[in-house]
Design brief:
The protein contains 10 helices and 26 strands. It is α/β, with parallel strands linked by helices. Strand 24 and strand 25 form a beta hairpin.
């Protein structure tokens, strides 16, 4: 019987784990360890509603001090976990060693920061609430020229926010197309068109050679020799799992803490979830790591229940889902877009909106939508979750 559970990570997954444990009847000691000094918050609006002022900080909080008190959570915020001793079952946090008999790792991910770039003022990443505050202040003070490096979801959202403030903005992507980690080029093209129509200069296939300036950035030199004016640079070129503190722990770590299908790690009583976890993709022989809000919440719930009752542990079978709002349009992806076949249920990439399903073998494995009806996308998402027959799905629509 567990009596002392520690959750590491004041994240979406961390808060969901706390709430699930108490809702399931766990009445032992419960501790939350978080590197961020802030009360846990939802990171999703940071590059969208919060950045442009449509939401206030209180609205992005996941949980209040009063709610944490009601859950009887012992808080260690602003004190990152430093190491893990699996033999003694203790976690080093600052000068303290916290014992546990159950542990959920939900430390999330951290932004990739190219060496030397951040020696200059005016260069930012966007991962935390404090990051969002700094970028919002920079965008709303004067009329800075903005260069966003990386045309993934975060980069595209930040570029859209910069145009909300009426700023001059260039979006630079080293890959041949935007959103390359998520979808193939033709499916991303409507997003690029939308940005250009709203005044964003989009440059793909060209990387950043260096940032120029003395104490503060003032220019960005690209690999083709182009030099861009830049008073503000926001870097969104990916993230890595926040697992450095586990380097000498003995846990299996490989671009994320490796787990089995039930989210259990290589050590007894230890589970990993969210951005920090790598788990087997259902129905395949591969493992994946997903950096999306819905995945973090769903995994945390399943891991918490499995931790409390290992004999009845169930595999995590959730379908990854991500959405991105830009210039009033929503891009959505469920499952995977890396698939052999694509079939458009509505529209096409040449039009203002589209809805596509993707198939591998004889199953529907993904759905991608831009604009269009939320109800239609949810229907396609259910096809992915149910592993619908590809021939039948395509046949019904033709």
């Amino acid at each position: 019987m567990l009596s002392n559970i520690v959750v590491v990570g004041g994240s979406v997954a961390g808060v969901q784990a706390l709430e699930t444990l108490r809702a399931a009847g766990y009445d032992g000691r419960l501790t939350l360890v978080g590197a961020d000094p802030e009360l846990p918050y939802n990171p999703t609006p940071l590059s969208k509603e919060l950045l442009i002022g449509e939401m206030e900080e209180d609205e992005v909080r996941l949980i209040t001090e009063e709610e944490l008190a009601d859950l009887q959570v012992d808080l260690h915020l602003g004190t990152p976990a430093q190491s893990l001793d699996l033999t003694s079952r203790k976690l080093r946090v600052g000068t303290s060693h916290l014992p546990y008999d159950g542990l959920i790792i939900a430390t999330g991910s951290q932004a990739v920061r190219p060496r030397g770039w951040f020696d200059l003022d005016g260069v930012h990443t966007l991962r935390t609430l404090d990051d969002a505050r700094r970028i919002k202040e920079a965008m709303s003070t004067g009329s800075p020229s903005v260069v966003v490096v990386g045309a993934g979801f975060i980069g595209c959202e930040i570029a859209a926010a910069a145009r909300h403030f009426g700023l001059d903005v260039t979006l630079v992507e080293a890959a041949p197309s935007a959103l390359q980690r998520a979808v193939r080029p033709d499916l991303a093209e409507p997003v690029v068109r939308l940005h250009r129509a709203n005044g964003v200069r989009v440059t793909c296939g060209v990387g950043v050679a260096r940032l120029l300036g003395t104490e503060r950035v003032d220019k960005v030199e690209l690999t083709d020799g182009t030099v861009l004016d830049a008073d503000l640079v926001v870097v969104g070129i990916g993230a890595v799992p926040a697992t450095g503190w586990l380097a000498d722990s003995g846990l299996a770590v490989d671009d994320g803490v490796v787990t089995d299908a039930t989210l259990r790690t290589s050590a007894p009583g230890v589970h990993a979830v969210g951005d920090a976890a790598r788990w087997p993709r259902p129905g395949t022989h591969e493992t994946i790591r997903v950096e999306h809000w819905t995945n973090a919440r769903e995994q945390a719930r399943r891991a918490a229940l499995n931790l409390l009752d290992p004999g009845a542990a169930e595999p995590y079978t959730g379908v990854p889902y991500v959405w991105s709002d830009q210039f009033g349009q929503r891009f959505q992806l469920a499952g995977t877009a890396r698939a052999e076949h694509v079939h458009f249920l509505d529209g096409s990439p040449e039009e203002e909106s589209y809805l596509a399903v993707l198939g591998d073998g004889d199953k529907v494995v993904g759905a991608v939508g831009f604009g269009g009806s939320p109800r239609q996308f949810n229907r396609a998402r259910r096809l992915v979750a149910g592993g619908a027959s590809w021939p039948e799905t395509v046949g019904r629509d033709t």
